[in-house]
Design a protein that fits this description.
The protein is of the alpha+beta class. The protein has one domain. A 5-stranded antiparallel beta sheet has the order 1-5-4-3-2. The protein is globular, with a radius of gyration of 12 Å. The two termini are 24 Å apart.
């Protein structure tokens, strides 16, 4: 499977000044970007680092989550994450 491309950023930058953030599934984060009227979807790579994988409008967020959630473990393995639940280091 091809390596998933995205933007690696600190978890703090991903969460910076957003009015809404949720972890709907272990290892995936969703935050509202009200400045751009979209939601950002990221996979957690470590306690302090995430991979931004998608940016979608509010009508697409649930559909995109259905696509990304099954791939969380695959993406984490591609980026060298030890898949011990609750331990992203």
């Amino acid at each position: 499977m091809d390596r998933v491309e995205g933007i690696i950023m600190s978890k703090d930058d991903f969460l910076n000044n957003v009015p809404y953030t949720k972890e709907p599934y272990e290892g995936i984060l969703v935050s509202a970007d009200t400045g751009h009227n979209q939601y950002k979807i990221a996979v957690q790579l470590s306690e302090n680092q995430v991979l931004l994988v998608d940016q979608v409008n509010d009508k697409e967020v649930l559909e995109k989550l259905r696509e990304w959630v099954p791939r969380v473990n695959e993406i984490q393995m591609q980026y060298g994450v030890n898949n011990d639940p609750g331990n992203y280091s």
